[in-house]
Amino acid sequence: MPLDLPPYAELLGLRTEERDGETLWVMPFGERVVGRPGFLHGGAIAGLLEFAALGTVGAALEEGASARPINVSVDFLRGGVEHDTYASALVTRLGNRVANVEAHAWQHDRARPIAAAKMNLMLRRA
Q1: With a threshold of 0.85, does the pTM exceed it?
Q2: pLDDT tens per residue, range 7-33
Q3: Residues near 106 by Cβ (< 8 Å), separated by ≥ 6?
Q4: How far apart are CA 16 and CA 120, in angstroms?
Q5: Residue 117 is part of which domain span?
Q6: How many CB atoms sit inside 10 A of residue 75's CB?
Q7: What CATH number does the domain containing 60 carry?
């Protein structure tokens, strides 16, 4: 997991937490992630999902390899409210040049996600 986050991740206030052997990405609620009053901005949610996917793929790759999004599809399932938001990702396929990843974001209950994403990432191997 990279320790130096890009500026957008820092703007969102993202951090990681380890729970039960899994890395979760956390976005604290605050003014910088508000869309309409009291709700998260969709771009902030999509950013959280993207960083969860990139971080998960990055952890599965060898030293010196990198990943870049080819395409991203986000389904917004319910409004994010004034609460910390969590995300995790699952690599469904890790090929030589492309990775397929699913990511989910939730707040109070993991079984009730607020958004889900499917991504294809281009891999550059060392």
Answers
A1: yes
A2: 999 999 999 999 999 999 999 999 999
A3: 85, 86, 87, 112, 113, 114
A4: 22
A5: 7-124
A6: 11
A7: 3.10.129.10
Q: Over the stretch 47-101, which tens digit does the pLDDT of each residue have?
A: 999 999 999 999 999 999 999 999 999 999 999 999 999 999 999 999 999 999 9
CA distance 68 to 80: 26
How many whole angstroms separate alpha carbon 21 and alpha carbon 63? Answer: 21
Residue 1 lies in a domain: no
